[in-house]
Fold this sequence. Notes:
This protein has helices at residues 19-29, 50-57, 71-85, 104-111, 178-184, 196-206, 238-255, 260-278, 281-296, and strands spanning 9-15, 37-43, 62-65, 90-94, 98-100, 117-126, 129-135, 138-141, 146-149, 165-166, 173-177, 210-221, 228-231, 234-236. By secondary structure, the protein is an alpha/beta fold. The strands form 3 sheets. Strands 1, 2, 3, 4, 5, 6, 7, 10, 11 and 12 form a 10-stranded mixed β-sheet that branches. The protein has a two-stranded antiparallel ribbon with strand order 8-9.
Amino acid sequence: MASTPESSVAIILVNWNGFAYTKACLESLEKANSPVFQVVLVDNASQEPEGERLKSLFPQLHLIANSENLGFTGGNNVGIRYALAQGFDQVLLLNNDTLVDPNFLNQLQACLQKPGYGVAQPLICFSKDTKTLWSAGGKWNSLLGRAITLGDRMPLSRYHAKSPELDWATGCCMLVTREVLLQVGLLPEPYFAYFEDVEWSLRIRKAGFKIGIAEHAVIYHEAGAASKKQHAEGTLSPKVFYFHVRNQLFLIREQQVYLGFPYHLIRFAFWGAYFLIRGRFQKLSAVFQGLKHGLLVPLNPEKKWL
């Protein structure tokens, strides 16, 4: 991990009460045999001074401490704005609950050497089942407004991409060129978390850039570490369901996928019925709030968030 002015890649990690995960991720990055890069750690107002603790352990990283939790979108955008101001050629968004293969960044950069490519994603496996895929990128069903994860839970040894191009890349790990950022803009901040990567990817492709899967780049993901905390209504926070419902509706409204409304409203009705039967009233309320805000909150799809 280096912090010299000629660094070409800024790796952005957003931390929110995830000290152990972020520390392990930074330790794995120290083993990366990649060209010079700079880690930009954005602490999203953790309850404890985790950013300062991590900075003391990894003094070469650049720390940005937010005064409030800006979510996945706002936190990453703070880091991206810093990277653009410093003149970095590429920005890597990387979830803090990941571990990286030493050669992953080289392979991602090789993918971006192909003409027309502006974004690259690695193969992402589960950290607790390193031979099973969590994501090999995504496909967008424009008829129903469905974001489909490719390779989901497939054995890594059996997966082969049908196409080198993706419809969308997951924000868990995506390498993005400076040209894309300046032309397309940043992550949609109103989303806060969930589906922001799909919206961003669709915008990027609309601008004429290709999104590629780097099949020889591999990382490992805990999957939902920030949102998994045991409470009275299960493991996932009600906020997860709120953002999922709201942002799914944001997305199909922005993309004008009219058949998506009945399809997803039926899905969410089943969720609500399940939570009602199980007595999970906080999650039921979250679904209804997500529906209300997803359908009624004004959109600003033209804003670039730079």
